[in-house]
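Treating backbone geometry as a discrete language has practical consequences that deserve illustration. Part of our work consisted of pairing the sequence of a single chain with a tokenised description of its backbone. We regard such an encoding as a compact summary of how the chain folds. The amino acid sequence and the backbone structure tokens for this protein are reproduced below.
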Amino acid sequence: MKRLSIAIGFLIIIVLLLILYIIVVQTQLRRINHQLENRLTGDTRQPVRVELINHELSQLTSNINKCFKAEETLRLDCVREEKQFKELIANISHDLRTPLTAIRGYQQLMEKGQLTDEQRKRLGIAQKHAEQLGHLVDHFFEYSYLLNSELKPQLERINLTNLVTECLAGYVSSFEEHGLTLSFTETPPIFIMADKEMTFRIIQNLLRNCLTHAAGNVEVKLTAFQTAIIFIKNPVENTSQIDIKRLFDRFYTADKSRSKTTGLGLAIVKILAEEMGGNVSADLCKNQLTIQVEFQLIKN
């Protein structure tokens, strides 16, 4: 009987020790989880630590720390490569502008000289290509500027209706030269809180995108409800090649030849809109592409 009591006592002690051990392990697991949450939600880069002498748990934390170290190395590599990429874009845009200015200057000198009709025709073609190249370089230059500068939008009360109307009026002749009709649905004045220059550049890039890619008439519309929205709708060709999810990515273009566009125009629109607290999106229904840009609406 006495031996049975002793055995039961030992069993109780062993059970208590096991319960204590489980409690300690659970406590360590909670601490590990807390440290992981701090890394995910905070700025800490501290490795995960464990105080319990347990081989499996120690191995787990060691592997977690190895993953964190590999992830940190990859992150730093990406930051360095992104910085180098920005510098490359800035250098390319600057290097392209210098010879392009010289080309345009010589073309102007040739235009003033005595040329035959055939020579003048060829010069006109060269000037047209130089103009296209100029637009591409401008996109590179603008994009590199946005990447390498700290944008500080000067937000003010803007009449979006008037700004869109003025910008559209300046592009009517360009659309006519491309055989396109530009229609605008008139609306009462819509006021937004935005940077006027940035908003103007957004509208310009949207219209330039239409000039390059539209396969038919372009429709522009403004709405105001919770936000103010610019809608630009136009038919497009080769819809199967257009990836809506990537439409605002830098250098993305459905034109695989990449001869007419850098794919930066809509990327610039996205950067400028988001800097002012707005948003961009696109929708493709059959062959109709609709791009919309949202702004902060000022309600009267």
